[in-house]
Prior knowledge:
Elements: H1 10-21, H2 26-33, H3 37-43, H4 45-68, H5 72-80, H6 101-110
Helix pairs in contact: 1-4, 2-3, 4-5
Amino acid sequence: MARPPFNPTAAMRRNVSIVAGAGVSHEEIALGLGISHVTLTKYFAYELTTGAYKRRQEVLGAMFKAAKNGNVAAQKAYAAMTPRVAAPPLSPEPANAPEGKKAQAQAAAVSAQAGTGWETLLTVPAQ
């Protein structure tokens, strides 16, 4: 007789997003639910990623609000956090950008035999 399919509940989904947002490992979450890591990632992928970040943002919003209202503990906790601001993306190099030394040396090495006695001996096959 086959095992019945796993059926996650709304309470399980909420719990997974909360603990994942707090940084609990996937292995620990699976142990807490009594399921395998594979089952956890299969049925709770959203809660482990986007759901966790949404819960984390909710808590940070509440902490910020408490800090603005004068809660000194919230102010200290918020100030102690290290922001992870992403650097702006690099602009692509222009098409006519000069080559680097290595690229110039490689290009010169391909035709180094040109104009020498080696030219007839060292022919570069057509690609």
